[in-house]
Write a structure and sequence with these properties.
- The chain has helices at residues 19-32, 90-103, 116-121, 154-163, 175-187, 207-220, 237-240, 263-269, 291-303, 318-325, 338-351, 376-383, 397-402, 414-426; strands at 2-5, 65-68, 84-86, 107-110, 125-128, 144-148, 167-170, 194-200, 225-229, 272-273, 276-279, 286-289, 307-311, 329-335, 358-363, 387-390.
- The chain has 435 residues and is of the alpha/beta class.
- A hairpin with a 2-residue loop joins strand 10 (272-273) and strand 11.
- Helix 2 crosses helix 5 (175-187) and helix 6 (207-220) crosses helix 14 (414-426).
Length: 435
């Protein structure tokens, strides 16, 4: 398990050491976030006003379609990003809206057969068992789920066949599966983030410096970027970024995560600066974070697309294994000295069984009096790894960090040039500029 430095800060999201409180904050963000960035109250039982129609409740709007997930009766209509719900069962509808809120999705609700365009264009259709008979003749499509609050019965499966449902389930038993399915729709099915791990082949190799520089250059290129500090024994990437006082959640807040974490909610909950989001440790007493939580958080980070940079520890444990399993490629930073190369060789040998793409980044050593020194490509060859390039020395880095400027802050500096060249090589599209 990761030993995590717990919060020792002011009260608020930044100051909590209680993992369950952190999860409550994330769930609140999910429940209140409209897909367009506005915030909407969580679903409540009882009469509801229909957006754009003050005073009209669900029963008065029966037969019409409404969008759930915006605050205020005068909100302008928007295209919903979530499932189409077809039911006239009020109790079932309340359950489904609650699950949509938990998944961070806004729903269309239809009390009657939907029109053809809405039926065909909705990313997911959730049909109440009470509405199944009215859907005969609506046409077949994928992404239909039949839901009932009654015990499972042959009639449920008959209705599922009649409406062409991909799945049929009973609440509350099927809630977790349905929340995950709705969340997939809400977050889209785009390309997952290119996830790059960085670790040192030996102590003090400069892996954290490189991780920060890669994240900054990715964000500067316009990509959604998340920097993850997966080394609990390091100095803290938030410190390196000048973000130790930034508002947002740190790792201890996610210690209680077991199931799915919403990607959008995760991003909103983390500190933001330099055009990216960062998930780091805090300075207090260690708080254990289970491997399940690491898996859930990193999976959520990947679902958002763009780039995820993970600063990895050199020690191996269950949490490091979870992080390694999420990577598309990894860079091992190797100082070009004999002891460092020997240490990196042992580290690389341990990583090969779990990493498909491991590349060497070499920090040049001082030249001897003859002007000779180990060549970066030769170091990579000795390690049996592809050569990803030479990590240049940045003479201005100590002074920059003393004034709160992170590695790679200068677009013309050596670290930024390395990062830019790296992303251009590994990201598809012109100049590596795809999001």
């Amino acid at each position: 398990m990761f030993g995590i430095r717990g919060f020792n800060r002011n009260p608020g999201t930044r100051g909590t050491t209680d993992g369950s409180r952190g999860l409550e904050i994330v769930k609140d963000i999910v429940a209140r976030r409209g897909a367009d960035g506005e915030r909407a109250g969580p679903p409540r039982s009882g009469p509801r006003a229909r957006p754009g129609h003050p005073g009209r409740t669900r029963s008065e709007a029966a037969g019409g379609t409404r969008v759930v997930g915006r605050r205020g009766a005068d909100a302008a209509p928007v295209e919903p990003v979530g499932p189409l719900i077809l039911t006239e069962d009020g109790a079932l509808l309340d359950d489904l809206l609650r699950l949509c809120a938990a998944a961070g999705a806004r729903a269309q609700v239809r009390h009657g057969p939907p029109d053809r365009d809405r039926w065909e264009s909705a990313p997911l259709v959730i049909v109440g068992d009470d509405a199944a008979a009215r859907l005969r003749g609506s046409g077949r499509r994928r992404g239909v789920v039949l839901v009932s609050r009654a015990p499972e019965s042959p009639e449920l499966w008959r209705h599922a066949v009649e409406v062409g449902a991909d799945h049929a389930l009973v609440l509350p038993d099927g809630e977790k599966w349905l929340v995950d399915r709705i969340a997939d729709v809400a977050e889209g099915a785009g390309c997952p983030a290119l996830t790059v791990g960085v670790l040192g082949g030996s102590g003090g190799a400069g892996a954290s410096t490189l991780a920060c520089a890669l994240a900054l250059t990715s964000a500067r290129a316009g990509r959604r970027t998340l920097l993850v500090d997966a080394d609990p024994l390091g100095g803290g990437l938030d410190v390196m970024l000048g973000a130790e006082e930034a508002e947002g959640l740190r790792w201890p807040a996610f210690a209680g995560s077991r199931g799915r974490v919403g990607g959008g909610a995760l991003e909103e909950a983390l500190p933001a600066l330099h055009g990216l989001r960062v998930l780091s440790w805090d300075r207090g007493e260690p708080v254990p974070v289970p491997a399940q939580a690491v898996r859930a958080v990193l999976a959520a980070a990947r679902r958002g697309g763009g780039s995820v940079v993970v600063d990895l520890p050199r020690h191996a444990d269950d949490n490091a294994s979870e992080a390694l399993a999420q990577l598309d490629l990894a860079l091992i930073v190797v100082p070009a000295t004999l002891p460092a190369v020997a240490a990196a060789g042992r580290t690389a040998a341990a990583l090969r069984p779990v990493l498909r793409d491991l590349r060497a980044v070499v920090r040049p050593a001082r030249r001897d009096r003859s002007g000779r020194g180990p060549d970066g490509a030769e170091v990579a060859r000795l390690l049996g790894l592809p050569y990803a390039g030479e990590l240049p020395h940045d003479p201005g880095l100590p002074a920059a960090q003393d004034t709160g400027r992170p590695p790679g802050h200068d677009p013309r500096g050596p670290l930024a040039r390395f990062g830019t060249a790296f992303w251009q090589q590994v990201v598809p599209g012109p100049d590596g500029a795809t999001a």
